[in-house]
Amino acid sequence: MDKAGWYTEEWADQGSAISLRVKDKVHDERSPYQHIEIYETETFGTLMTLDGLVMVTDRDNFVYHEMMSHPALFTHQAPRRVLIIGGGDCGTLREVLKHDEVEHVDQVELDERVTRVAERFFPELCAANDDPRAHLHFQDGIRWVADAEPGSYDIIIVDSTDPIGPAAGLFGQAFYADCHRALRADGIIVGQSESPLFHASLIKAMHEALRGANFLDVATVHFPQCTYPSGWWSATMARKDATLAGFREQACHERAFATRYYNAGIHQAAFACPEFLFKTLL
User: Fold this and answer.
1) Of 12, 21, 122, 129, which is least packed with CB atoms within 10 Å of its CB?
2) What's the CATH number for 61-281?
3) Is position 141 annotated in a ligand binding site?
């Protein structure tokens, strides 16, 4: 936070930045893994940053958490067992557990302090942490997947930070191969894949790594995220032994829970690939 009361995250390689006017910094700690800071902003509510990068705000987190969960869950025909890698703020966990057919969720987050800080400052995101179907584990997600029994999960959600430091291994072919083994025959993996405008080469590398790990079908979904670099974000999804067709549209229309961004129209539109990215992925 500068002297004028602004939090600024610079995207130096893109010659741009985002700034949020801050009322106060309310928490500051260094966990064994990263620097965790909490701010109260004037217009975006509570803000969490990790190592100086925006992770979550009250105002716009719903878009990310809904798009990291519901497209995969409404594509799979019977999502009963789900694994979340990362997701320490627990917003994705909350969305997954809105699906009554889900019977068991393992969330594997490396840094327990992120979750404990989220429980204090983002209690609404952690509202499902005590759900009996939720099982929180604080350890290395890469190792968890490597040790998983074959066919353990219907869906794996990789809700990771940027592909640097400990998270870098969550974007590689070896990790995806372990996920392929840990998924059931019709299983789906989805992982956050950064900005199509700023990070198209990363998305291309993810597609290649997923196909290299023998996933049959790969696609990227798009959504706005105004506090992330460029304001345009994505998640890349792959299916083990089938295509990503088969959206359960009627189930989506008849869902028993409310959403703020995701719906059937958004689901279908989000898979449209911009021409520049289509050419990049060729």
Assistant:
1) 12
2) 3.40.50.150
3) yes
pLDDT band at 167 (very low <50, low <70, confident <90, very high): confident
89 is in an annotated binding site: yes
Q: Annotated binding residue at 106?
A: no
What single letter denotes the amino acid at residue 70? H
Active-site residue, 159 included: yes
Look at residues 203, 240, 217, 250 and name the one whose alpha carbon lies nearest to residue 74. 250
Ligand-binding site membership of 159 (annotated): yes
CATH number belonging to domain 6-56: 2.30.140.10
The single-letter code of the amino acid at 61 is N
Residue 163 has pLDDT above 90, yes or no: no
pLDDT tens digits, residue range 82-117?
A: 999 999 999 999 999 999 999 999 999 999 999 999
Predicted pLDDT of residue 210: 98
State the catalytic residue, choosing from 159, 178, 217, 241. 159
